[in-house]
Amino acid sequence: MEEVRVRLKEMLSAFNISQADMVRKTGIPKSCMSTYFSGKRLPKQSAIDKISRAYRINPAWIMGYDVPMSLPAPSQQELDAELDARLLTLIHSLNADDRKIILSIIERLSNTDTQ
Q: CA geometry: angle at 6 spanning 18 and 33, to 5°?
């Protein structure tokens, strides 16, 4: 447990952030985050994954393994996939009329690019 607590504190220093910043960026409740920093509880894998994604930190490093802290920069393919997923999520959240408007905009942009 000690190692996770130490690693989380190292992250605060490395990113020059507070626990409150980490709570906001990860969505992990403040009460849970406090127990991780105090060493009273170990974060569940889902919490480690949220922290890892939010700060591009190797989850194995957070857990205390002797690996590099940072994850490698994402590839263009990973960035494109993330963008596609975000677009789909946003499009699905729209009503049918708004989706038609977005479709027409995309079609116009596609026609402009090919000419």
A: 50
- Residue 7: partners with Cβ closer than 8 Å, 6 or more residues away: 61, 62, 63, 64
Alpha helices, DSSP H, located in 16-44: 19-26, 30-38
Tens of pLDDT, residue by residue, the chain (115 residues): 579 999 999 999 999 999 999 999 999 999 999 999 999 999 999 999 999 999 999 999 999 999 999 887 778 988 899 899 989 999 999 999 999 999 999 999 988 655 5
Asked if 42 and 63 touch (Cβ cutoff 8 Å), the reply is no
Q: Record the pTM.
A: 0.64
